[in-house]
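Duplicate of earlier report; TonB-dependent receptor input re-posted below.
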Amino acid sequence: MHFPGHPTLIHLAALGACASLALSAQAQTADTAPAAAPAQQQEASANSEGNVLNTVVVTGSRISQRGFTQPTPTTRLNAADLEKAAQPNLFNTLIELPALQGSTGRTTSTFSTSSGVQGLSSLSLRGLSPIRTLTLLDGQRVVPANVTGVTDVSQFPQLLITQVDVVTGGAGASYGSDAVGGVVNFITDKRFNGFKANVEGGQTNYGDDKNATLQAAWGRGFLNDRAHLTVSAEFVREKGVPSPRFGGAGANGRTWFQNPAFQVRTLGSTTDGKPQIYDIRNAQQFQYSKFGLITNGPLQGTAFGKDGVPYKFNYGSNGVPTGTGAVTNCITPFCVGGDLTGTVGGGTSMGMDLKREVLYTRGSFDLNDDAELYFTVNLARVNARFNPNPGAAKNANLTIQCDNPFLPASIVTACGDNKITSFQFGTANGGVEKDIEVKPVREQKRFVIGSNGKFNVGATTWSYDGYVEHGINDIQIDVANMMLNPRYNAAIDAVRASDGRIVCRSAAAQASGCVPLNIIGDVKQDPAAIAYVFPANGPQQLSRQRQTVASVNFNAQPFSNWAGPVAVAFGAESRKEGYWVTGDPYGNGVYPATPNTPQYPADPVLNTTVGNNWFAGNYHAASGAYTVDEGFAEVNMPLFKSASLGDANLNVAARHTEYSTAGGINSWKVGSTWKTGIDGLRLRAVTSRDVRAPNLSELFAAPVVINQNVNYQGSTFTAQQRTVGNTRLKPELANNTVLGVTLSQPSWAPGFSASIDYFDIKVKDVISTFSIQQEVDLCVAGNQTFCAAMDLVSPVKYVTLQAFNLAKMRNKGVDLEALYRFGLSGINLPGKVTLRGLATYTKSFLTDSGVVGTIPVESAGVNLGNTPKWKTQFTETWENDNLSFTVSQRWISDGVYSKEYIECQTNCPVSTPIHQTIDNNQMKGALYWDLGGTYKLNKNLSLYFKIDNLTDVAPPAAPSTNTSYGVNPALFDVLGRQYRIGARITFQ
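Output:
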């Protein structure tokens, strides 16, 4: 995709680079006193700033002078914390933090073919999703790994990470858009000297997800240490959990898998005092079986087994087929128990096979003690593989003609006896030997040049940093063993020709190479038929994300007031984001098709205009770009300082942002900290306006047209559903308020620190997408925005589906953190102990969709989602000079399936669309124990081990209205007990 030059971007990039170089040149002759080191390079006194476990400046502010205590809560993990976690991917360590909720990793989205987030390790704060969390590397933006604009932590140089700062309050004014939930900043060791390596291996107690980690880094100074070069390389393989395919068993002996599901009765049937929804286990889909089931008519209940032999299907719940498609004692589409061989939920991969390859280098040259020029190069490749489901279930939506030559003679006779010529049929397609396999690959190329240092203006010392970044992420998704629906339908409709051959009924299909496919029973499939229905070239998506950023920032203490120095920071940033994406012709449509390659030949059976021919994975072409220009200023002003009252400061920041698509918008932050006269006690408060701009996917979504039924003015008819992007979207606006109390190492409790913070995040103009019926209902209710997006009167009726700024969200709760360090010499024992606890209590998380006839939905405490009432992490560490042991506990509180459900077993009220009744609305939480230890053999070599989920706690059942997966990996460990051992080598 061509990226035309953007004048503002080019000018700002030139300005930032020239300013940095000019300031560096000036600094060569300036006689200045050494300024405070940047916050990222200062020595931490403990694990968390913001939450008073540190006394240094961190990511929550652009101001880098010592002595400034910013009001934004920030939790820090340092290198020791990261090493104790001993994870192959730092992402796995971070998502255990209580404030991280709703992140996507290799155990999530494994049931999806087309979501685009498969294999992404992207972080989410407060359950607000990764698109509302700004993830930075050394305070700099990173090229997205997805069209939604999120970054992939797997592509970062993880061995060189010295600390991670997690900012959970308004940082948008300081750091830019998308920080609605907060900021996660990864900070690297920029002056590493020597050599270090990490070698690690492990697996689960089920013998799967075998993993290996190889990491190495080297750094050295040259020219009397004025020049410096650092290089790191990483190879990590986590092999994942293979699919057990069909049936009710979990992978490799995971006996906890129970095929959970919801049986849902109609609203009209709930006048009998019974619940509308039943929470069941061993759910059996009675609309198909593993190798085929007649699902309607006089032959309903006839299944097909080995060699196509018919037999009476064993329905669960003592069900009996009615001949109408229903089954007595069952609720469509589920029975309980019976023949479970065709269930597919347990066949979803519980963990992807993920491979990370990362090469990173940083080079720098000090013009003098006050000016550094540097460059970084980050090359990364992340491969994933997984199976979203076995087979390709067809839920009673197939029609088999009675003259199909693959039918047993007894069925043909039964057709004649019952005077029918066809019947409805469902199958899990268990005869297909290979399961769908999704293979996303992301390749990042990121380049940064920049300068930082300090210079004098009069008597004031200013520090600066400026950089220009250009990054590309190429993403390719290949899907293997995927069915082409039109070919499948043609191939299963077989007939015997006059010469005795079995052929496809459709002459057009015959002419295009159709080979009949026998789906009647467990029979050997014709390889030619499989090749026709499941072509070797499956769905394919190619996309490229591009990002160019120019940024420059300055800060200083230019003057003092009555209480001390006043610190200021200001700067500007310009960036351009763009993407293009294309799908294969069978998914995208041959016209326009890019690439239109010979491996996807034209086929009259297929829809060559709209596409959407695949069973799943219909990728469509799109492209788009936008620019963002921003400027900010931040001031920290001391308010008072006295022996009796203590000292306090006021922190104010403002940012103006110009989006090429959405126009201008302002964000701001006002906060204060008060170190009271009470020993160790500090109060803090901050309120902010943060923004999130619509991302490329929301603005420029690929156009897709399908036919859907819709009800309008009392009539139901078919209309075109035209899904497109919406370039008229506005930014989301968030008001974020935090009030906190901290206690930092008082004289009466040395080594102890604690904090408690109340947070309240209100987001309006939330970008969301509605169904075709919801848009029609909103138009009928008088919303002219939606009326303008449809025409239901003309002969060609259509409804345009777009994202709109209509929803609202509000998330509020409490963060708690405590740390206590003490030695054991007082009781004549060696070593020291560190106790640390973090917890997030989410009081409420309401989402108002803006849809007619709905109410705000409460997500806090809904364990089918991302936001439990309580999420906590506790660690206890004992260590001496050579040995350390750490015990950890991770707790997810008990919850419910939905806060809108009414739980009852008898005398239930009549269900409504808003408040449905259910027999059980309880979903358990989980308590996990982890154990780790390190032994230092000598100054250069350490050995370590880690056991996660020591007691092998099973995830609670997570039912849904289908039988996909049945667990919630967004909250719970689905892999089981995991063992890892490793060695760290260091030479400095």
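Confidence is low (pLDDT under 50) at residues 1-58.

Merging into the original ticket.
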